[in-house]
Amino acid sequence: MPNTLNKSSLEEFVWKPDLFKDKVAFITGGAGSICRVQAELLVLLGAKAALIGRNAEKTEKAALEVDQLSHEPGSVLGIGNVDVRNVQQLKAAIDKTVERFGRIDYVIAGAAGNFIADMTNLSAKAFKAVVDIDLLGSYNTVKAALPELVKSKGSVIFVSATLHYTGTPFQIHVSAAKAGVDALARALAVELGPLGIRVNCIAPGIIGNSEGLSRLSFGTKPEEYTKRVPLQRVGSTKDIANATVYLFSQAADYVTGTIEVVDGGAWNLGTVMGSLPYPDLLLSHQKINSKL
Ligand code: HXC
């Protein structure tokens, strides 16, 4: 179970209550480990939120749970059966959110897909699936939300990664997708800036209790990574939530087109993910898989 927040969690944070009163957040991947806690902190700070996901049951359950933190019951909406690869489904989710809450101020494009695979085991379809979810899905999310963001002079956060700052083995697909997400953020910041819309990325490092880490750990326990992190601990979902609040708040009014790396300094030491089984796992293939 990922770390989640409770009603008294706000005492642990530096933010003032009601910071996001009357604001509405639209969060893809909002039922997942990292984005759920981003949603929780926004809701604790007074925002309303729509959590968007593919799995309807998981998304609706998460929304009910996050709503327990809200100032006013019914402030969190779960919208399932939405695949970010489908812009029409996203548009319908935007419409539902606006129908319920009247506006959208903040968008978090957090839905992502990932798995460990080296090139010989990564089909063209598998590469496309991840690029479509992570990169096209991020574009689609902003595309569908744009009319609302224009009205509210809103703000966007893409959830990126640090994998592509170096060559990370077994993560070709995600690295390519997240490099694209960073480029998307920079270009959109330039295009949407004149409309008063800010666009930034958060690049999480190794976040304990996250789905990403459990999928990519190669059997390594989070504690085993700590020596590879300059700040000597793995990150928490609260670290990402704090960066989110900063980027959406007025404190970041002049900040757009940035990539906020929240990794304890880890990427400066080079790639961590996948470095343990490298290169033995690659060299262990008896023959190159010829499946496309
Ligand atoms: C090799 C794989 C594979 C694996 C799927 N595929 N899993 N190939 N190794 N482990 C291949 C399939 O065989 C198929 O190709 C192609 O990918 C598409 O698979 P589908 O199952 O049809 O696609 P889909 O249902 O769209 O699933 C998308 C998915 C899946 C990304 C492939 O893993 C998924 O839905 N994941 C859930 C969400 C998720 O991953 N969350 C983690 C986010 S963490 P072929 O050619 O065989 O038909 C995260 C962190 C990133 O993103 C940064 C970390 C630091």
TrEMBL record:
Q: Which PANTHER family match?
A: PEROXISOMAL 2,4-DIENOYL-COA REDUCTASE (PTHR43296), PEROXISOMAL 2,4-DIENOYL-COA REDUCTASE [(3E)-ENOYL-COA-PRODUCING] (PTHR43296:SF2)
Classification via Pfam families: adh_short_C2
Q: Which GO terms describe its molecular function?
A: 2,4-dienoyl-CoA reductase (NADPH) activity
Cellular component, GO, one term: peroxisome
What sections of the protein cross the membrane?
none
Q: Which domain of life is it from?
A: Eukaryota
Catalytic function, reaction form:
a (2E,4E)-dienoyl-CoA + NADPH + H(+) = a 4,5-saturated-(3E)-enoyl-CoA + NADP(+); a (2E,4Z)-dienoyl-CoA + NADPH + H(+) = a 4,5-saturated-(3E)-enoyl-CoA + NADP(+)
Keyword list, A-Z: NADP, Oxidoreductase
Q: Which InterPro entries would you find in this protein's record?
A: DECR2-like, NAD(P)-bd_dom_sf, SDR_fam
Q: Spell out the protein name for this chain.
A: 2,4-dienoyl-CoA reductase [(3E)-enoyl-CoA-producing]
Q: What is its EC number?
A: 1.3.1.124
